[in-house]
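User: I'll paste a sequence; please echo it back and then give the predicted structure.

Assistant: Echoing your sequence first, then the prediction.
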Amino acid sequence: MEDKCILINGAGTVGIRDADVLLSLEIPLILTKYNASEEDIKTKEMKALLDRYPNSNIKIYAGRGSNLEERISNFKEIIGKCDGSVDDIEFDKVSLAVECTDGKEGRVYNEIYKPKKIPFVLNGGGDSKLVKSLYFASVPNCRVQENIEEYKKNNGKIVSCNTHSLTTAIGLLEEVLGKGEKFSEKLRDQIIIDFSRRYDDPGKKDKKVPKFVKIEHRPYHVDEVEFLHPEIKNLIDTTYSKWPTQYFHNLTITLDLKDEISQNMLEDIRFQVQTYPRTILVEDVLCHERTMKSAEKARIKDADIPFPVFMVDGIGKHHLRMYALTPQRGIVAPSTVDYVLLRTNFIKGINSWKDAFDFTNKNAKYRNETFGHIKESIQDNLSHYEEQVEK
């Protein structure tokens, strides 16, 4: 696709990580960001991205707004380049826009995407009305695989970090308990989901560490989960809370099964997590610190991993429980790349979800490391933590 590119509009925490994986596949990019600042962690990450790919010819544009010339100057001084403002972008060269702005997607749609007829995808959040709730996640045994033409032709929304962890877990559980209605028929009661969110990203200083925790019993990400796994519609009950941690969300999934849980069942589920290319298994202790140190041993700093970490357990005779650490910053990036490959022609021969999934797993890198290295190294470090990490 000569002269064509992907626009990442709002290259912040999530957008920079999308860009990182796309650049590893040599897909041309345009990045926009409102401003650059020495103290801003997102600016530092953009600078690190440019340093990682010095020959990529990434285009950088400042967002619309006041003090434009000053902000362009900030980019040139701090980042090292700026190609102008958003209005200088050659939109006819944009094959797809990945929309990562924080709450401004409606305005961007009205002012840019709609009049210029640019295909787009909302990334990890945003107004679902713009895409008629067409949710996407590159996870196993969900409706994406059977409805790929719908995703190729229509704008969509790549779901949140926690939805990625949850829908991945459901998909892996279905490999053991049965797919579709066979899975829901195994349930004795609703699936209990506890979302324990971190309060902010590492490195950000604009939020105070909370002193108290409030737990609410209310729907949270239910519409996304039920869309991707319609077999569990009306079978999810959620609680939401926010905790004084930064690196991971904690997720607890509890299934009440009709049949008694066996050791073989637990081992089969653990095997699914252990062998799936985008999950990490831990069998003894699910710990933020251990995961961070195991990741650093695998050359991934600051616990900035792209895959969820799962621990599988049985509680009593009928309750199956999966615990997860959800990495908020990077978990959406692999799905975003799969989506880009499906909706564009940058890589020839991508005709199905599996084509995109397999190509990304085999060829993409995250923070200069292959997906296989990240998964296997961290998983191995966690499995042999005392000998390999704490020695």
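The longest strand covers residues 191-198. The chain has two domains: 5-159+332-367, 161-330+370-388.
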